[in-house]
Amino acid sequence: MLRISKSWCAVLCFCFSLVAANKDDYKIFNVSLNGDSSISLHWLIDYPKTKLAFEIHLPSEFGWFAFGFSNYGEAFPADYCLLWRNLDGKLHLIDTWTNDEGVVDLDHHQDCSNFRYKTTSSGITKYTFKRKFDTCDNRDYIIEDGTTHIVWSRGLQRIVSPKGLNISTSDRQNSGMIRASLLKNLHANTNLPSHVQTLELLADKVKVPAEETTYWCRVFKLPDKFKKKHHIYQYEANIQASSQGLVHHMELFHCESNAKEEIPLYNGDCFDNKRPKKTEVCKRVLAAWAMGAQPFTYPEEAALPLGGETFNQYVMLEIHYNNPELKSGIIDSSGVRFHISDKLRQMDAGVIELGLEYTDKMAIPPGQESFPLTGYCISSCTSVGFPQEGITIFGSQLHTHLIGVKVYTRHFDALGRELPELNRDNHYSTHFQEIRRLKKPVKVLPGHVLITRCDYSTMNRKNMTFGGFSISDEMCVNYIHYYPRAPLEVCKSSISEQALKTFFNYMKEWEDQPTSESKGVSENYYSIQWNKMRVQLLDEVYHEAPLSMQCNMSSGNRFPGYWENAPVPAVSLPLPPPSRDCHFDDQK
Ligand SMILES: *[C@@H]1O[C@H](CO)[C@@H](O)[C@H](O)[C@H]1NC(C)=O
Ligand SMILES: *[C@@H]1O[C@H](CO)[C@@H](O)[C@H](O)[C@H]1NC(C)=O
Ligand SMILES: *[C@@H]1O[C@H](CO)[C@@H](O)[C@H](O)[C@H]1NC(C)=O
Ligand SMILES: *[C@@H]1O[C@H](CO)[C@@H](O)[C@H](O)[C@H]1NC(C)=O
Fold first, then answer.
1. Residue 17 pLDDT > 70
2. Ligand 2 center to residue 170 CA distance, Å?
């Protein structure tokens, strides 16, 4: 066993032998695993070796502690590194997996390596281990960019052996799940210049209800100095210590209206029917934070404009409180801290919405394990919308509502040759919508094509799900953050009206479904009795039928052009799937 000094990171620093190339490479991230932060996770990323080093702190009273990963946060089946106390009191770490019933089995390949631990005099156990992103063991979870669902559980009884242990429990004190993006961008956080000032937009002593989910909305009028244009250089969460683990995500919206329009200073539940209608214009995302996210820093070339003569001075903070333990009596004043300056950077950053139009023309049949919808940003739109020298995308926020499980955006040049993907989340969750800095900024030229696809799971739905605004409707959007700001703001598609009519007509003529010319779009979708073949046909139609494009400017108007019945962009040369550095033949 190593000798370990007092500093908490001593263990992690010891077991992680990086060459001191850059201070950033040693960055240690952390997230609390339970509500009161008594169990926490700290990690370092070694990109050259494609390894993570984890350190976990927890109270020492336990017989076993399982820490691992699952696809969408289910406790089992899952991949666990299991810490357990032998009958003689020694701790061991073992690579395990749990079957569909929550029963533990041992992996043939042991991939929770370099285990070390210590127990502090204050009764905290700290342990570390390393884990490859991809261990090449089919029993192990592959850690990828985007969302990772971290699951844990513990038992207070000592066990004789981990094999056969049943980790299934409904006890919220002894199990949990959090989402984190583990493979963070190490080089995104640049230092701020000294002329930067802070602007805090915080909740005002909110009595957090003893309910699992609360969305709290507070409208602010910006201080007078924002009649002059400022730049946001960076923003971060300001979470009260007593609300750690409770504040799940926050968004700041700009109230998109003319500069003179007064918006009521609403402060209450977002879904309360007393919320004034006028606050509905507060929906243009300025900032988004989700649990585990680091400060979001704009790249040196650009920053996000806030304020100015034509800028409506109202913004709205939305906080999602997640209170599964139904605690009562918590008062919260968390919010977002902005680092701003009236010294403007060279360029304004902007946001473009890629993906699907919000329309019931796009729909997802019920009972599907995974059904895709795809939104196109076509060549003729980027040709008119982007400056000649193109734009540089440095950040991306993927967005769906409740049933989105995977989202990605592919990038093609004007000849249909695929370039590296813009962003991808294979374990997407609507509850973890960070704006992420891309590890490599992406240059997109006029004429290029961006294709955003979302996969939805409707196993729990009995009826059709439609594209739309309501939380029970779906969206498929990638908000890309880029510079220099261009006139293009919306580049989204849906199936052309004509093609959809043809589909409904086909359903009537050949499949004997009660669709009809006189019925509306959603009514027609409802009319269809969905079976495997019809679902597959809809999928094919969506991927081949001509498009109706929304190629809009920030003024809300379309770019001049003809945007109906555009062909689906042709892919001439797709990229091969990413290769894994594995030698599967030497495994059982
Ligand atoms: C966790 O990270 C935050 C910064 O993101 C830092 O302020 C805090 O001190 C860290 N906590 C621990 C226990 O290291
Ligand atoms: C595991 O434990 C849960 C609850 O504690 C129980 O319902 C389940 O039947 C057990 N499974 C097996 C395979 O023993
Ligand atoms: C689906 O919803 C529509 C509209 O509310 C309703 O008419 C229809 O009966 C529903 N279908 C099923 C299978 O529940
Ligand atoms: C795009 O512009 C058209 C025409 O002005 C408008 O009807 C539509 O709502 C706009 N779409 C978005 C998403 O702004």
1. no
2. 11
Whole-angstrom distance, CA of residue 323 vs CA of residue 35: 8
Q: Which residue from 473, 515, 526 has its CB within 8 A of the most atoms of ligand 3, so it is best to mutate?
A: 526
Domain 2-180: CATH superfamily is Cellobiose dehydrogenase, cytochrome domain (2.60.40.1210)
Confirm or reject: Cβ of 530 under 6 Å from ligand 3. no
Lining residues, ligand 4, CB within 6 Å: 490, 550, 552, 556-558
Q: Of the ranges 31-35, 210-214, 417-421, which is most confident?
A: 417-421
Tokens of 482: 């880029």
Question: Are domains 2-180 and 193-348 of this chain identical in fold?
Answer: no
- pLDDT, residue 19, reads 37
Structure-block tokens of residue 249: 């995500």
Highest mean pLDDT among 6-10, 33-37, 291-295: 33-37
The residues annotated with a catalytic role in the active site are 215, 399
Ligand 3 centre to CA of 527 (Å) is 9
Averaged pLDDT, 397-417: 95
345-403 confidence digits (pLDDT tens) = 999 999 899 999 999 999 999 999 999 999 999 999 999 999 999 999 999 999 898 99
Return the CA Rg of the chain.
Answer: 25
Nearest atom of ligand 4 to the alpha carbon of 552: 1
Widest CA span in the chain:
78
Distances (CA, A) of 376 to 197, 284, 498: 40, 21, 18
Buried/exposed 299-337: b ≥16 CB within 10 Å, e otherwise? beebbbbbbeeebbbbbbbbbbbbbebeeeebebebbbe
Q: 155 and 39 in contact (C-beta within 8 Å)? A: no
Ligand nearest to the backbone CA of 356 = 4
Fold of 193-348: Jelly Rolls (2.60.120)
Mutate to test the pocket of ligand 2, among 101, 156, 171 (most ligand atoms within 8 A of CB): 101
Q: Which CATH architecture has domain 361-577?
A: Sandwich (2.60)
Tell me the domain boundaries of the chain: 2-180, 193-348, 361-577
